Amino acid sequence: VRLHRLRITAFGPFGGSQDIDFDALSSAGLFLLHGPTGAGKTSVLDAVCYALYGSVPGTRHTGGQGTALRSDHADAAVRTEVRLEFTVAGRRLELIRQPPWERPKRRGTGSTTDKAHSGLREYRPHCTEGVHAAAPGGGRGHTSRAGSWKDLSRSHQEIGEEIGALLGMSKEQFCQVVLLPQGDFARFLRADAEARGR
After folding, report:
1. Distance CA 114, CA 109 (A)
2. How many CB atoms lie within 10 A of CB 62?
3. Which of 111, 105, 114, 142 is nearest to 127 (CA)?
4. In sequence order, which residues have a C-beta less than 8 Å from that of residue 55 and are 6 or more positions away?
5. What letter does residue 70 receive in the DSSP assignment?
6. Tens digits of per-residue pLDDT, 13-54?
7. Cα atoms in the 13 Å half-sphere on the side-chain side of 43
8. DSSP codes of every residue in 105-155
9. 3-state DSSP call for residue 103?
10. Structure pTM?
């Protein structure tokens, strides 16, 4: 899996929108997320997990999928959303996840709850000879006349099955092998050889 771009809106400590260009960060081959406690380092990793699997690692997933993810700093009219653009198995995909959202009613007073939404799109270049188009995200792209995003699914279940098949890992396996949350890392270090092997 190669991550390209992540856009976080009203998620975790981020009241507004934050864009992370992983292509620029990883141009040297390696990068480090660092900052003081509470800066949002873990929330960036949570957002990647949420985009891929529709939930965050277990120890930080409390109170349902929506309210625990929403930023306390977000404007009431701004919906929580995570967008992740990545390449896996030679396919450039974008995942969009919006947890359930309690928002102000458009008419009258009070609030109403919108359901969770998910979307999966794939970038498809329209290849022709001699014309260069920009790749998604602004880099030099394929030889093509433009390329476009094609909607693949808006079904939580279909998207889950597709991502599971493409990555070859469940969320639990992804969190253990790729993310290894901070609290679990300490447990891993203290574990005996048999437990580490498992």
Report:
1. 16
2. 9
3. 142
4. 49, 61, 65, 171
5. B
6. 999 999 999 999 988 888 888 888 888 888 999 999 999 999
7. 23
8. -SSSSSEEEEPPEEEEEEEE----TT-EEEPTTSSEEEESS--EEEEEE--
9. strand
10. 0.78
